[in-house]
């Protein structure tokens, strides 16, 4: 690969095998650029290690334009939602293609190096960490679990209950306040139900896995319509337990009116790709972003 063609964009880490090289042979990523493996295989082969040895890791990489992906430009580009969506989709499709064939360790979107040599340096500096994470992820996939609280129904009559009591009719102002109190009471009840469901989810999920990542609840454009997202967790679940996991969690809201659960998967394990950040960065990246699966 000619380093003059642009920057080296890294999608993920995977085992360097002949089967994966075959999968990637016709795969294209961002801007339609070919995807290739960049790693240790040649050096390992020279040392007498079999090419498909499980300890051989590689970056799944491609070339991108330096005019689009250099650090100053990326800072501006990350405010361009249309461009960002296209890059995120291409990144995700590459990762999911690998995940369909073998264990994949996704890297954050817009992980870019100045050239292939700098990328190899980063791979070598973190290869033991990458190998450990791949071992953890083998045979497992990510499942998302979200809880939503649905808005309470306003009382009949446009939000004002009948303006009477046992004693005398209510004034419009008092009727309005009574309506607001009723809505607030129903809202609090639904939050309490959601808290109980969240505890059920946590207890039940612990039977299947001890790996969980708690993400911030989604707000604004990411939220699901008028519903409020109050829990946004990711779990790492073995393939042999995935369907049982999904069915078990789906039943946790059967008796919780106003609370909805959403269980999605399997995803490539974006949330479990790496342990907490090290104190010193790997050599060579010129930029980085975020990268959880949608």
Task: Write a structural description.
The strands form two sheets. A five-stranded antiparallel sheet has the order 2-3-1-4-9, with helices on both faces. Strands 6-7-5-8 form a four-stranded antiparallel sheet. The chain has two domains: 3-138, no CATH class; 142-271, Alpha-Beta Plaits (2-Layer Sandwich). The protein has helices spanning 18-24, 41-46, 66-69, 71-77, 81-99, 116-137, 172-205, 242-250, and strands at 7-15, 35-39, 57-64, 104-113, 140-149, 212-214, 228-238, 259-267, 285-287. By secondary structure, it is an alpha+beta fold. The protein has eight helices and nine strands. The model is unreliable at 45-50, 154-165 and 276-294 (pLDDT under 50). It starts with 6 loop residues before the first strand and ends in a 7-residue tail after the last strand.
């Amino acid at each position: 690969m000619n380093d003059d063609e642009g920057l080296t964009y890294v999608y993920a880490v995977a085992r360097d095998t002949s089967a994966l090289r075959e999968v990637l042979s016709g795969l294209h990523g961002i801007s339609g650029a070919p995807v290739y493996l960049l790693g240790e295989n040649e050096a390992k082969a020279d040392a007498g290690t079999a090419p498909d040895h499980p300890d051989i890791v590689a970056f799944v990489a491609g070339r991108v334009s330096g005019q689009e992906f250099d650090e100053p430009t990326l800072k501006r580009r990350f405010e361009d939602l249309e461009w960002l969506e296209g890059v995120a989709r291409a990144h995700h499709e590459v990762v999911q293609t690998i995940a369909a064939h073998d264990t994949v360790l996704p890297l954050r979107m817009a992980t870019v190096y100045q050239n292939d040599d700098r990328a190899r340096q980063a791979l070598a500096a973190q290869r033991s960490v990458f190998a450990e994470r791949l071992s953890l992820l083998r045979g497992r996939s990510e499942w998302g679990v979200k809880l939503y609280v649905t808005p309470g129904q306003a009382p009949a009559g446009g939000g004002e209950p009948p303006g009477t009591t046992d004693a005398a009719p209510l004034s419009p102002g008092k009727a309005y306040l009574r309506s607001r109190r009723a809505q607030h009471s129903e809202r609090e009840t639904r939050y309490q139900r959601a808290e109980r469901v969240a505890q059920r989810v946590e207890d039940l999920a612990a039977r299947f896995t001890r790996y969980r990542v708690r993400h911030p609840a989604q707000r604004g454009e990411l939220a699901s319509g008028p519903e409020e997202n109050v829990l946004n967790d990711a779990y790492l679940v073995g393939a042999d337990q995935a369907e049982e996991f999904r069915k078990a969690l789906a039943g946790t809201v059967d008796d919780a009116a106003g609370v909805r659960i959403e269980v999605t998967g399997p995803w490539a394990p974006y949330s479990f790709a790496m342990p907490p950040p090290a104190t010193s960065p790997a050599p060579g990246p010129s930029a980085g972003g975020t990268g959880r699966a949608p």
